[in-house]
Amino acid sequence: MASIQTNILPKSYTLPGPSKASISGPSTRRLLPVGPAFVSHLRLTLQHGHSFDVHDAHAEKERQKLEEQQNSAANGDDDLGVGDEPESAELLALDPKEWKKHDYYAVLGLSHLRYKATPEQIKIAHRKKVLKHHPDKKVTSAEPQSTSSLLTGINLNTNDDAFFKCIAKAHEVLTHPEKRRQYDSVDHELMEHQEDDPSPTDFAKSKKTLSDKEFFSTFTPIFEREARFSKKQVMPMLGDIDASKEHVEGFYDSWYNFESWRSFEWLDKEVNEGSDNRDDKRYTEKKNKSERARRKKEDIARVRQFVDLTLSLDPRIKRIKQQEKEAREAKKAAKSAPASGAATPQMTKAQEEEEKRKKEEAEKAAKADAKKAKAAAANAAKKARRAARAEEAPAA
After folding, report:
1. Cα 249 from Cα 236, distance rounded (Å)
2. Are 223 and 238 in contact (CB under 8 A)?
3. Residue 248: left (phi > 0), alpha (psi -120 to 50), or beta?
4. First-to-last CA distance in the chain?
5. Spatial distance between the Cα atoms of 276 and 284, rounded to a whole number of angstroms
6. DSSP string, 252-281
7. What is the DSSP letter of 83?
8. Are 310 and 221 within 8 A, CB to CB?
């Protein structure tokens, strides 16, 4: 049997002393029931009386209700009124390769809704377009048709395949939250409206003025359009001519601190198709990044310039300044009122000037009297010194 060898302890070794650490006492902690299992338990207990039969019956009822809704939507009973917009020849002739230039809301028949379209409306509009333009559904009465009796009823419009690809791309973009966010940032209709927005040069050159009604009808829709890009949940609107001073100041304070989530990735330049060169990709990415930053900076400056223009034309600012002036004058008049608190009519400007003139004349007269008294006293003192010298002279 092998022996185990141990080292001999050195003579300087001492046994360790008892530990001074103490064991903490017991504590009571409350455990909170959480998680899907607990939620299911609560639902079963509170809604179904802890009966699995009742729970199963409720689940079956909900399943049937959902199935009925899906069937009604499939049969066109509830299409939410979307996807039926007329299709122009220009729209049907879109090139799938130019997919970044397409108006996807127009492709799906949602031009009247655009960014307000819900996911359900996009889904229904897409289904309608697919049923209408699917390549397998070539037999239709749509033009152009063949004049041959053998091909009667056959649609020879070969662009259906291309437009179907446009429909698929529109559905892909508008159902993807991030891609739709990028597309909505540079939406065709949005860009057209921004080009028509008023600018300072429109008013500087022609010295154009707006009535109160024209001011609010011109600027209110623009702020409503821009407010959807705010990172804040709610942005104050322009209001009306009777808005309070607090509302007007809060409105401009919020818009001068406006932060936009708008992005410009949709306008990025694509890498040349078929290129595997890393340098080309890096250069393109770097160029796209700088262009996004430039467009973002220009957009921030555009919003700030527009707020400046609105502030300079706002008829409520003149009213607020007039009210502040009247308040200052009233406060000044209250300070100059008698201490007894008796009510005195507010002096006009002419009366104030007259009072000021009289006060200045009284001060001048007082200064003149003081100067005369000082001169008389000096003369009297001089005469007294002369008389004293005259009396001293005979005595000497």
Report:
1. 11
2. yes
3. alpha
4. 153
5. 12
6. HHHHHT--B----GGGPPPPPTT---HHHH
7. S
8. no
Residues 6+ apart with CB under 8 A from 197: 222, 306
Amino acid at 186: V
Q: Is the pLDDT of residue 205 over 80?
A: no
Give the residue-averaged pLDDT of 165-191: 94
Residue pLDDT, tens place only, 271-329 = 766 667 788 888 889 999 999 999 999 999 999 999 999 999 999 999 999 989 998 98
**Ranges of CATH 1.10.287.110 domains, the chain:** 89-145+153-175
How far is residue 365's CA from residue 371's CA, in Å, rounded to a whole number?
Answer: 10
State the average pLDDT for the chain.
82
Residue 328, both tokens: 């200052």
Residue type at 338? P
Handedness of CA 343, 348, 354, 360 (dihedral sign): positive
What's the rounded Cα separation, in Å, for the pair 211 and 213?
A: 5
Evaluate whether 263 touches 292 at the Cβ level (below 8 Å).
yes
SS3 state at 50:
coil
The answer on pLDDT for 111 being more than 60 is: yes
Instruction: Give the alpha-carbon dihedral of 155, 159, 160, 165, to 10 degrees.
Output: 170
The per-residue DSSP string of 213-224 comes to HHHHHHHHHHHH
What is the reported pLDDT for 29? 81
Neighbouring residues of 104: CB distance < 8 A, sequence distance ≥ 6? 169, 170, 173, 174, 183
pLDDT digit string, tens, across residues 222-234? 999 999 999 887 8
Give the Cα separation of 384 and 268 in Å (integer).
105
CA distances from 379 to 256, 365, 374, 376, 382 (A): 74, 21, 9, 5, 5
Whether 263 contacts 182, CB under 8 Å: yes
Average of per-residue pLDDT across 371-383: 82
CATH code for the domain defined by 89-145+153-175: 1.10.287.110
